[in-house]
Amino acid sequence: MSRNVGLYIHIPFCMKKCFYCDFVSFSDVEDDIIAEYFSSLKRELIFYKENYDIKIDTIYIGGGTPSVVAISHIGSLLEFVYCNFKVENYCETTIEANPESLDEEKIKFYCSSGINRLSVGIQSLNDVELKALGRIHTSKRALEMLELVTKYFENFSVDLMIGIVHQSIESFSDTLGKVLKVNPPHVSVYSLKIEEGTHFYNRYESIKSHLPSEEEERNMYWFAVQTLYSSGIHHYEISNFAKENFKCKHNLKYWDYEEYIGIGCAAHSFFDGYRYFNTASLEDYISRIKNGEFAWEDRQLIDDFEKEKEYIILGLRKIEGFELSEFERRFNVVFTEKYKTQIEKLKRYGLVEINSHFKLTKKGIDLANIVWQEFI
Ligand SMILES: C[S@@+](CC[C@H](N)C(=O)[O-])C[C@H]1O[C@@H](n2cnc3c(N)ncnc32)[C@H](O)[C@@H]1O
Ligand code: SF4
User: Fold this and answer.
1) If both were cysteines, with which of 2, 68, 80, 206 could 55 make a disulfide (CB 3.0 to 4.6 Å apart)?
2) pLDDT tens by residue, 27-42
3) How many CB atoms lie within 10 A of CB 26?
4) Which residue has the least CA distance to atom 7 on ligand 1?
């Protein structure tokens, strides 16, 4: 019987690199290289087709910014997937988009090519903040695109950021209020992380006085939790919120510890007992796949102990946590016995709660890194 897997496809192209972003993406790439990249993605898919009996039940086209490439590339890639694999009926199929590179023609095309979920990177609806983030769109453009998305997509998501340069609780409240006017069924709220190698990292000394304090950032987070809840958009993962039936099925696979394969430059996979990721170099990816080689950079068999730890940490990202009976079924281990010391300690600090599920408390969400440390 075929095994169900999620398919992640990485599109590593952007119009311009944002100041905070360390996702693998390149700008100013020539069209013929982009075309070669799409041919490589198809070749990589063939490897899975020839070696495994899989059924794809979620597809996530992420990046980078998939909406910057010509729609014909996206259309032909999806057609290739449908022609070569079993694909679940009503397979959740997401594409990430940026307001600057989106237009009505693209949105219509996505709808007609089987894409049924759009994730739009808005980040903020304040022009000073957008400029400070190095975004290339204005808040006006972002709102126009969101309005357009609602015309064609019932299922869409909005990415927002908190803790960003020049942001205040008032400006975040204003952004959130405007976003809620388009009635999104799904919202992601990411806390800014200053990643090594980014423009922000290199200029940290000059931006740090413009960043909200940790306390202000946490206030924004809990303000988002409450405000979204009042609009029927419920907190289901540390950074994710959804209306009933609109949780992201693909991303839930990561937190539920299910299998997925990642295709493309820098894409990660968790498949057949292994975790691995592809080379982050575009040239290397294209040339290795062209030569019939794997583009894997690191491929590790996950042993049982490692699996338990990963399951705990990923499961705790969900607001409902993970079910103790499911842990026992998967690992043949009684969680409360094996991890008694860690549980007692974390309970004493008020960071976790345990009944039929093991989950973070509100304090545990704010101090999640301390919780992860106990299981690493
Ligand atoms: C790969 S981007 C996809 C969307 C599209 N490229 C765009 O930016 O509009 C995914 C999301 O990750 C978030 N993100 C990226 N870098 C981040 C960072 N350093 N800290 C917090 N969130 C980040 C942003 O909200 C972004 O929309
Ligand atoms: S945030 Fe999105 S648009 Fe900006 S560089 Fe990263 S992937 Fe590209």
Assistant:
1) 2
2) 999 999 999 999 999 9
3) 16
4) 121
Residues with CB under 6 A from ligand 1: 20-21, 23, 62-63, 65, 96, 98, 121, 123, 159, 161, 190, 192-193, 195
Structure confidence by residue, pLDDT tens digits, 128-182: 999 999 999 999 999 999 999 999 999 999 999 999 999 999 999 999 999 999 9
| Token pair recorded at residue 153 | 């997509």
Tell me the domains of the chain and their CATH numbers: 3-255 (3.80.30.20), 304-375 (1.10.10.920)
Among all ligands shown, which has an atom nearest to the Cα of 141?
1
Write down the pLDDT at residue 144.
Answer: 97
Instruction: Please state the φ and ψ torsions of residue 138, each to the nearest 5 degrees.
Output: -95, 170
What's residue 298's pLDDT? 87
CA-CA distances (angstroms) from residue 34 to 72, 261, 283, 291, 327?
12, 21, 11, 18, 43
1 pLDDT higher than 90: no
Identity (one letter) of the amino acid at 371?
Answer: V
The three-state secondary structure class of 271 is strand
Residue with tokens 């924004």: 220
As a whole number, the mean pLDDT across the chain is 97
Over residues 196-201, the mean pLDDT reads 95
From the CA of 64, give the closest atom in ligand 2.
7
How much is the pLDDT for 119? 98
What is residue 107's predicted lDDT score, i.e. its pLDDT? Answer: 98
Q: Which ligand is nearest to the CA of 121?
A: 1
Helix (H) / strand (E) containing 326: helix 324-331
244-260: string of b/e by CB count within 10 Å (b at 16+)? Answer: eebbbbbbbbbbebbeb
Which residues line the pocket of ligand 2, CB cutoff 6 A?
Answer: 14, 17-18, 21, 23, 25, 63-65, 98, 121
The C-alpha atoms of residue 257 and residue 276 are separated, in whole angstroms, by: 15
- In ligand 1, the atom with minimum distance to the C-alpha of 191 is 21
Token reading at 158:
């909005």
Split at pLDDT 50, 70, 90, the class of 262 is: very high
- Pocket residue to mutate for ligand 1, from 190, 238, 251, most atoms within 8 A of Cβ: 190
Task: Work out the average pLDDT over 40-69.
Answer: 97
